[in-house]
Amino acid sequence: MGTGKYSRADGRKSPNYCFPITVVIFVVFCLIGIWMLMTSYVAPTENVISSQETANTVRQVVGERNSKQFEDTSGYSLEDSTVENGNTIDSRNENQSDVEDNQNGTQNETSKMAEDNNEDKVEAERPGDKAELKNVVEENQGRETDSQDEQKIQAENDGDRKAEDGEPSSETVGLQEGPGTNKSEWRESEEISRENLSELDEGNKDLDAGDNVKEDTETNVQNGAWSTQVVESQNEKKSQQSSKSKDQYEHGWKLCNTSAGPDYIPCLDNWLSIRSLPSTKHYEHRERHCPEEAPTCLVPVPDGYRRSVKWPKSRDKVWYYNVPHTKLVEVKGHQNWVAVTGDYLTFPGGGTQFKHGALHYIDFIKNSLPDIAWGKRTRVILDVGCGVASLGGYLFERDVLAMSLAPKDEHEAQVQFALERGIPAILAVMGTKRLPFPSSVFDVVHCARCRVPWHIEGGKLLLELNRLLRPGGYFVWSATPVYQKLPEDVGIWKAMSELTKSMCWDLVVIKKDRLNNVGVAIYRKPTGNGCYTKRRLKGPPLCKDYDDPNAAWNIPLEACMHKVPTNASHRGSCWPEQWPKRLEKPPYWLNSQVGVYGKAGAEDFITDYNHWKNVVSQSYLHGMGIDWSFVRNVMDMRAVYGG
C-alpha cells in the first residue's frame, strides 16, 4: 500500500520525498505515544489485546494514506488462512501454551512491524519497486496473521466456554457494548476466561476433535473484535449440542420441596387451591385439586427405604421406614389395626368393627346372609373408609377382590399402608363429586364405621353408592346406629330407615356379632323400576334422562337416582356370571355391541382374553427377566376388557 504523489497542504505541488518523511515521523510519534499510553494502564496479562489494538491502529493509519496506489491485502482468503493455521490448532492445550508465549513478545513484534512498514513506505515511493513493496507487505501481514490467529483461537476458546456457562463471550460483549466498551470490564472477563481454560479442556474431551478442527479454523478467521452472525450461530449450535449431549446422560431432575415430603401428592397437596376454597364443609379440601401445570420434580423416598416385603408376607408386615407413620399405632393400636414391631409395622388383621380379626368378621357376614356367597356371586366389592385395608387383604382368602377407599386425612397414610401391603386401594373421599367409577360395577359396597353421614342433604352420598352398586347388589353397613341405643344413634337409624325405604332398598337382615359386640345391617338394591313409580313420596327424585350414570370424572354429586337398566343390551340389567366363569365368558351386554377392535363384542372379548393369556404366560412371566415374586400391584394403563 502506498500514498498519493501529491500533497495539498498549501495548494502547491511538493517534492515527492518530503511527504513520506513527514508521514514516517508522524507515525513513529503516534506509535511511541500509543505504546506509552497502553503500557501505563494495561496489565501484563493483557498484552495480547493491547498489541492487537496497536497493530489495528498501524494498519488503519497506513491504509488510509496508501489506499490510492495499492489494494488492501489484509482481507486474505479463507482457504489461505485455513492452510496457514492448520498446524496451530492441533489441540486446545497447544493453543493455550502458544498464546502464553506469544503474550511476552507481541509488543516487540508490533513495534518492529511499525518500523518495517515505515521503511517499506519510503522504499515504495521509488519507481519500479511496487512488486518488492507488495512482497514486504505480505510478509508483514503473515507475521500479523500468526499473532492474530493465536489471539483469535484464545478468544474462540474463551467464547465457547462462556457460551457453555450461559455467559456472553468477549466477542458478544464487544458487540453489545460498542466502541465505548469499558476496558477494565473487558480485562476482567478475559482473566476469568483464562482461569477457566483448564475446565474448558476437560469439558471438550467429549466432543469429536477431528470433526471440528476445520470448523474451528473457519470460525477463528471470521472471529474478530466484532462477532459475525456466522460465528454467533456456530457458537449457539455448539452450545445446544453440548447441552443435548449432557442431557442425554445426565438428568437435572430436582426433588419436590414440599411440606408433605415423601407423602406428596400433587392433586391432594395443592395448598394454593385448597386455601382458596370458599368452604370445606363437604370435605372439599380432601378432594382432588390438581395444579394447572404438572410438577416436574421427583417425590423423594423416605429415609431408610427398603425393598418391599414379598406377598403374601406383606399382608401382615411391612418395613417401618417405607411408611414411617405411627399416629394410627397410637390412635387405633387397641383395635388391632397396626403395631410397631422392631423394624416392621405389623397388621394383626383387626379393625374398629372386627378387633378379633378380619376373617371372623368376613365369615360372620356370610353367615348372616349366605346369598352373598363370597368368591362366587360376589367377586368385586368397594370398601369405603377402609382404614389400613385389612378387610381387603383377608378377602383374598375368600377369592374376593376389594377396592379399598379412604381419604388422605388426619389418620395418616391409610392408603399408603394398603398399597405397601399389596392390597388394591385408592385415595378418595365422599364429598361433592362422584367417585371415579362407572355405574353398576360393584357386587357389594361395605362400610364399617366409615364416618360418612349417609343420611344428610337428601341422602346425596348414599345415592352415589346406589349408582355404583349393581342392581341386586348389597350394601353392608356396620355402624353404631345399627346396634346401639344412644339418642344420636337412634336418630341416625331413623333417618337411614326412611332414606333407604324411599330409595326402594330392602333391609334384608340385621345381625349382631357376639364376639366383637357389633352389629351389621345388609340392604339390597332393587332389580327393577316398579318401586320407583309406586312411591308415595317422590323423593329422592329420579335423575334426568340426559344424566349419564357412567360419567364419573369430576362430576358434581346430585341428590337423584338413576333408573335401573331393563334392556338386556345394557350393562346392569342382569347379574353377571359367577366367578370364575365371569373371567372367561363374555358379558351378556357385549352381544349387541361392536368391540374395541372392530369385531363383534363377544368375539372381541374372547380374542382379547386369549391374546393376553398367551402373552402373560409365554412372555411376561418367563421372557422379560422380571422376578414376579417381588411384583404385587400393577397398574394397567390400557385395560380394555381386563385381559
Blueprint of the fold:
Elements: H1 18-41, H2 47-66, H3 78-84, H4 92-124, H5 130-164, H6 170-177, H7 183-195, H8 197-203, H9 209-222, H10 229-249, H11 271-274, E1 317-319, H12 327-332, E2 339-341, E3 344-346, H13 358-368, E4 380-384, H14 390-395, E5 401-406, H15 414-421, E6 425-427, E7 442-448, H16 460-468, E8 469-478, H17 480-483, H18 487-502, E9 506-513, E10 518-524, H19 530-534, H20 581-584, H21 601-620
Parallel strand pairs: 4-5, 4-7, 5-6, 7-8
Antiparallel strand pairs: 1-3, 2-3, 8-10, 9-10
Helix pairs in contact: 1-2, 1-4, 2-4, 2-5, 4-5, 5-9, 5-10
Biased composition (Basic and acidic residues): 112-165, 184-217, 234-249
Membrane topology: Single-pass type II membrane protein
Main location: membrane
Structural description of this entry:
The protein has helices at residues 18-41, 47-66, 78-84, 92-124, 130-164, 170-177, 183-195, 197-203, 209-222, 229-249, 271-274, 327-332, 358-368, 390-395, 414-421, 460-468, 480-483, 487-502, 530-534, 581-584, 601-620, and strands at 317-319, 339-341, 344-346, 380-384, 401-406, 425-427, 442-448, 469-478, 506-513, 518-524. The chain has 643 residues and is of the alpha/beta class. Among the domains are: 254-300, no CATH class; 313-580, Rossmann fold (3-Layer(aba) Sandwich), CATH 3.40.50.150; 590-642, no CATH class. The chain has a seven-stranded mixed beta sheet. A three-stranded antiparallel beta sheet has the order 1-3-2, with helices on one face. Strand 9 (506-513) and strand 10 form a beta hairpin. Helix 2 (47-66) packs parallel to helix 4. The longest helix is centred in the N-terminal third of the chain and has 35 residues, at 130-164. It starts with 17 loop residues before the first helix and ends in a 23-residue tail after the last helix. The model is unreliable at 1-15, 41-147 and 159-227 (pLDDT under 50). The chain crosses the membrane at residues 21-43.
